[in-house]
Design goal:
767 residues, Kinesin, microtubule, Helix Hairpins, microtubule motor activity, 4 domains, binds adenosine-5'-triphosphate, microtubule binding, 48% helix, Kinesin-like protein, coiled coil
């Protein structure tokens, strides 16, 4: 390795590490038909000869040095094939592109110097672009770059306008500068690409749209700067909820050539194009010069006129920023292009000094919580699937049936192998058999031939010899025949065995099939069972719902019924209430309890010392031993007549202090009972003979009233009204039939002489 090569290697290592100068290579193209002379250069050295320096008449240049030497990272002569150019300038940077380093490869040079040839190439000799793309996609297949995304855009700068080459729309695009992603073209068509052929297709489309015209210098001169840019992005999961996003840009730039109007003979539109091209290239040159000077002088944050042209704005990162950059300067050895070549070399020489600092573009992004929810969901699902798999495996291990299946499968396999072996043997033997058949035929023919010869010859000796040969052949044929018979026997045996094996295999297969069916059946049964359980559960729920509904309906029905009954009762009571009450008699009333029972709630207010039951029982007639024989009790057969059937507390259970005379008791006869007394307050006691409540005050009062009553009766009798039917009365109050008198102690008191019709009506409304 010579010194130059060592330096180159060192330089490439630096470039790979990120901090390095721009790699500058010179490519000299072969002379075209028009160009006559060419010079041969060394591998690293380019020598530029000034043809004018030899002129005798040019006194100024007479004593000047005839040659100027420049040293670059690489100089490729006209023989250098595309592959070598690619390998030495671009290939080694591609891995870095996928690792997050911005990379730019661009060609610079005069018109017709071979820039497009170097970058794009021809069908036969493909240039750097297709080769690099191919390599890039080859790398991306590797596991570590598996999830990389590529987006491609292809633009041109024509007459200081950025145009999208991937659309037919003719609109001018603008550049934007982003802190993270650097210079971006706003509104450019970005196409996601996955294969090299997709990018090449885009390249083809773009090249068609690119502005090209024929000039004197180049039959297919590019009239614009073309930039193919790949945006590369890949995500790497870091720990926690952060995610690493690796981004990079790979730019491949084919510049339009700097040109001299004199050389190209351009006029009109071509001239304007040329001027614009020159302008942008001039700015590029200025930028290169400023950067180079700043680098040499060590100026920090120098002013670089990047904004002076669209081209330099787009190449800002590539020239002075976060990028690994390769500049290939194309020159032509033609004498008439001396000045362009000289300029190119001077520019290239300056560009050598430009240093770029390429950093790996890694962004840390917070993963959105929803992504994690999705991730968790996926993992859970996966977990469930794995659990199922494990269960299945466990089941297989534990299931003897499956083990049997396995054994049987093995057996079946063995039988199959045996069967195949036998088939092979039988085929071999069959072949032997046919061979023997052929041998016998051969012997037979031989015998026939010998027979024929023997018949023809007269020579006895010869006949004997032939006979001997015939016998020999016959013997041999017999031997073959015998072994053929043996073989046939074997084959028959084999056939029998084969059939047996086939049967066995069939049986095993059948049993396997049965087992398989059994398994399926069991699974089906299990499924049916679970479904049945589910159905039962649903049925139960459904029935519960129905019952709830029925209960609801019943409740509403009952409520309606009750409301109806109450309404009806109210109406009837209203009718009953219409019964005119006499002066001094409380209004009659009925009380409904629980919607059905005719009960009388005892009024207990301020009577808590009374241990009376709250409800007076109906139809239970209490017969005191003394009253058993009275006509009163005998006559009480109406269930509506009531007595208090309860025993009372010991304090109140003392013998009543008042016993009405038996004559009085007899006279009661059940027509009316003097119990509806409004006695006011006083201690209650029981009249045991009648079973009614009385109190001390009431008894005194009763005694007094009784006297009044007797007096009244007496007066009535005296007035000859003894035949008239007695009206129930109490003191001055007269009770009418069907009238219920309200008492504070006994809620209701009813006249026994209530007419039957009224009674019926009252009972009806209680049903
Ligand atoms: N190394 C080379 N070997 C063979 N032919 C070449 C080489 N370089 C260039 N050429 C030929 O020279 C001609 C001009 O080349 P090319 O179009 O690439 O120049 P250019 O610099 O792109 O010109 P412009 O700036 O006008 O577009 C083409 O016909 C091309 O085939």
């Amino acid at each position: 390795m010579n010194q130059f090569e060592k330096e180159t290697k060192q330089f490439i290592d630096e470039l790979k590490n990120g901090v390095s100068n721009i790699l500058v290579a010179i490519r000299v193209r072969p002379l075209s038909q028009k160009e006559k002379n060419y010079q041969n250069f060394g591998n690293k050295m380019i020598v530029l000869l000034d043809p004018d320096s030899e002129r005798e008449d040019d006194l100024l240049k007479k004593n000047r040095l005839k040659e100027t030497s420049f040293a670059f990272d690489f100089v490729f002569d006209k023989w250098a094939p595309q592959q070598i150019i690619y390998e030495n300038t671009t290939e080694f940077l591609l891995e870095g592109v996928l690792e997050g380093y911005n990379t730019t490869v661009f060609c610079y040079g005069a018109t017709g110097s071979g820039k497009t040839f170097t970058m794009i190439g021809t069908q036969q000799e493909v240039g750097i672009m297709p080769r690099a793309l191919q390599q890039l996609f080859n790398f991306s297949i590797q596991d570590r770059f598996k999830d990389t995304q590529f987006k491609a855009c292809y633009v041109e700068i024509y007459n200081e306008n950025i145009r999208d080459l991937l659309t037919s729309e003719d609109k001018n695009l603008e550049t934007r500068e982003d802190k993270n992603s650097g210079i971006q073209i706003a509104g450019v068509t970005e196409v996601e690409v996955r294969t090299v052929s997709e990018v090449l297709a885009l390249l083809k489309v773009g090249n068609k749209n690119r502005s090209k015209e024929a000039t004197d210098a180049n039959k297919e001169s590019s009239r614009s700067h073309a930039i193919l840019q790949l945006q590369i992005e890949s995500k790497e999961r870091a720990t926690g909820i952060q995610e690493q996003i690796i981004q990079s840009k790979f730019s491949l730039v084919d510049l339009a050539g700097s040109e001299r109007a004199a050389n190209t003979n351009n006029k009109g539109q071509r001239m304007i194009e040329g001027a614009n091209i020159n302008k942008s290239l001039l700015v590029l040159g200025n930028c290169i010069q400023s950067l180079s000077e700043a680098n040499e002088k060590g100026v920090k944050n120098p002013f670089i006129p990047f904004r002076n042209s669209k081209l330099t704005r787009l190449l800002k990162d590539s020239l002075g920023g976060n990028c690994r950059t390769v500049m290939i300067s194309n020159v032509t050895p033609a004498v008439n292009c001396f000045e362009e070549t000289y300029n190119t070399l001077v520019y290239a020489n300056r560009a050598k000094n430009i240093k770029t600092i390429a950093n790996r573009n890694v962004l840390m992004a917070q993963n959105h919580i929803s992504n994690y929810a999705q991730l968790i969901q996926n993992l859970r699902q996966e977990n469930e699937e794995l659990k199922l798999l494990i269960q299945q495996q466990q089941y297989n291990l534990n299931n003897p049936q499956l083990m049997v299946n396995k054994v049987q499968n093995n057996r079946s396999l063995n039988w199959n192998l045996l069967f195949i072996k036998m088939l092979k043997i039988s085929y071999k033997q069959k072949i032997q058999f046919y061979e023997m058949e052929e041998q016998q035929n051969h012997f037979q023919q031989n015998i026939g031939f010998l027979q024929f010869q023997k018949g023809r010859t007269q020579d006895k000796f010869e006949q004997m010899r032939l006979q001997e040969r015939m016998d020999n052949a016959k013997n041999q044929k017999a031997i073959v025949k015998r072994s053929q018979d043996d073989l046939e026997q074997h084959l028959v045996e084999y056939e029998v065995q084969k059939v047996d094996i086939q049967k066995q295999v069939q049986q095993i297969q059948d049993s396997n099939y049965k087992n398989c069916l059994y398994g399926i059946m069991k699974q089906g049964e299990f499924k049916i069972e679970t479904i049945e359980i589910k159905i039962q559960e649903k049925k139960r729920k459904y029935q519960e719902q129905i019952q709830d509904e029925q209960v609801k309906q019943l409740r509403t029905q009952i409520n309606k019924q009750q409301a109806k009954i109450i309404q009806g009762t109210k109406q009837k009571l209203n009718v009953l209430k219409k019964v005119p009450s006499l002066p001094g008699v409380d209004s009659p009333y009925y009380q409904l309890q629980n919607g059905q029972n005719y009960g009388i709630q005892r009024y207990q207010k301020n009577k808590s010392h009374l241990k009376l039951p709250p409800v007076v029982q109906l139809a239970q007639v209490y017969k005191s031993p003394k009253a058993q024989n009275t006509s009163l009790t005998n006559k009480i057969d109406d269930p509506m007549k009531y007595r208090i059937s309860q025993k009372y507390s010991s304090r109140l259970n003392r013998p009543p202090s008042y016993h009405p005379p038996s004559s009085q008791r007899k006279s009661a006869k059940g027509r009316y009972i003097n119990r509806s007394l409004d006695l006011g307050s006083g201690r209650d006691c029981i009249n045991k003979s009648s079973g009614e409540i009385q109190n001390e005050i009431s008894l005194q009062k009763l005694h007094r009233l009784r006297k009044e009553y007797q007096q009244q009766r007496f007066e009535k009798a005296m007035n000859n009204k003894s035949n008239q039917k007695s009206q129930p009365s109490f003191g001055s109050k007269i009770l009418l039939p069907g009238m219920i008198h309200k008492s504070p102690y006994l809620k209701n008191f009813q006249n026994n002489n209530e007419p039957i019709e009224l009674k019926k009506q009252r009972l009806k409304c209680l049903i």
